[in-house]
Design a protein that fits this description.
The chain has twelve helices and ten strands. With 364 residues, the chain is α+β, with helices and mostly antiparallel strands. The protein has three domains: 52 residues, Molybdopterin biosynthesis moea protein, domain 2; 229 residues, Hypothetical protein af1432 (Orthogonal Bundle); 56 residues. Helix 3 crosses helix 4. The chain is globular.
């Protein structure tokens, strides 16, 4: 299978992996031959990529970084927590523990950390769950997965990883106090609307610091995840080590997931494109140590991505390299002149330092 952008998908394309909504309901099954109407529907749902089956990518398999059941359960818990907080806020309650079982959050965290520790590969979260109305919840889960993986790589202990994980699950909880007309606006925000959005870290911190079941440091993940290394962030304009390490870590994960996620007003960037931008902001917006560790944690070239080498040859990423995320195993499928090979061949880029990936695309 290989990754194909929906805006380049042609009728007759065979779907290699099913597509689900956030409730775990299958929207389209694997093996379906996509019609023009189906493709247009996928675009309306905000789905930027699919996994397609063809002869050139035969045998290339993508294993979900997080099992579908685990992700759906996490989505349901996060949605329940956020909804309960929104309701208790409307009622003027200072606490939400009566409506929400914090044990559910802990269970979600434990399920996610088990999956991450059991994985020996760099992370890639091109999910098969799609529901643009639930993007806040899906984003919270993705940021949690990235944050846990990054925290493990950086050597944080189990207690710290739990604080990071719970903080990441709840880092955007303040958005529940932002008017939905702004939060779900189908377009770019005005300056006044963005000013309202910038209030969500303080709203989130104010909610979480009152919950004795939640660590004060986890609450600070909500408060500080939009602060920036150079002091240009919000809400307080903290700079450098004034920002808690958890929030410095989460800032990278939060931005990366936002950049690789489709929005109404812009397309999702490919993982390597987002990674390159984050790298360009090392020691500017983000702490250098966090960026360097993140590059070793996340797969910039996910399995199934079509790439072009400096030789001009076209290839499909077929296997990640655990020790060199930017040097995967690739399957050469086209000559530099664009002619499709009768017999493809695979090479490990880590064994050929003269070869480089110079271009990526969802379909070349």
């Amino acid at each position: 299978m290989r990754i194909v952008a929906t805006d380049q998908c042609l009728p007759g394309t065979i779907l290699a992996k099913p597509i689900y909504n956030s409730d775990g309901i299958k929207l389209i099954g694997a093996g379906t031959e996509l019609t023009k109407a189906m493709i247009e529907r996928l675009k309306l749902l905000g789905i930027s990529i699919i996994y397609a089956r063809d002869e050139l990518s035969e045998g290339i398999e993508v294993v979900d970084a997080v099992p579908l059941k685990t992700r759906i359960e996490a989505m349901q818990v996060i949605r329940s927590v956020f909804s309960s907080i929104q309701e208790s806020s409307r009622q003027g309650s200072k606490r939400f523990s009566s409506q929400v079982k914090v044990n559910d959050l802990t269970r979600v965290f434990e399920n996610l950390i088990t999956v991450i520790k059991d994985s020996n590969q760099t992370m890639s979260l091109l999910s098969e769950i799609h529901d643009k109305e639930s993007h806040v919840f899906s984003h919270s889960i993705n940021v949690t997965i990235y944050s846990i993986a990054l925290g493990i790589r950086l050597g944080f202990n189990d207690g710290q990883i739990k604080e990071i994980g719970i903080g990441a699950l709840l880092h955007d909880i303040g958005k529940m106090q932002i008017p939905s007309t702004i939060l779900h606006k189908p377009g770019r925000l005005t300056n006044d609307e963005f000013f309202e959005i910038q209030k969500h870290p303080a709203f989130g911190f104010d909610l979480l610091k009152k919950q004795y079941e939640i660590s004060y440091l986890s609450a600070h993940c909500a408060f500080q995840h939009h602060e920036r290394w150079d002091g240009t962030g919000y809400p307080r304009g903290l700079k450098g080590k004034e920002i808690h390490p958890y929030a410095r870590l989460m800032a990278v994960c939060d931005v990366y997931d936002a950049m690789t996620t489709q929005r109404v007003y812009r397309k999702a960037l490919l993982p390597n494109e987002s990674m390159n931008w984050i790298q360009s902001q090392s020691s500017i917006l983000f702490e250098e140590k966090m960026v360097d560790a993140f590059r070793q944690t996340i797969a910039p070239f996910p399995i199934g991505l079509t790439v072009r080498l400096n030789t001009g040859e076209t290839a499909i990423v077929s296997e990640p390299h655990p020790d060199a995320p930017d040097r995967p195993v690739v399957r050469i499928i086209k000559e530099p002149n664009g002619e499709t090979l009768i017999q493809w061949r695979e090479i490990d880029l880590n064994q050929y330092p003269e070869l480089e990936i110079v271009e990526t695309h969802s379909l070349i």
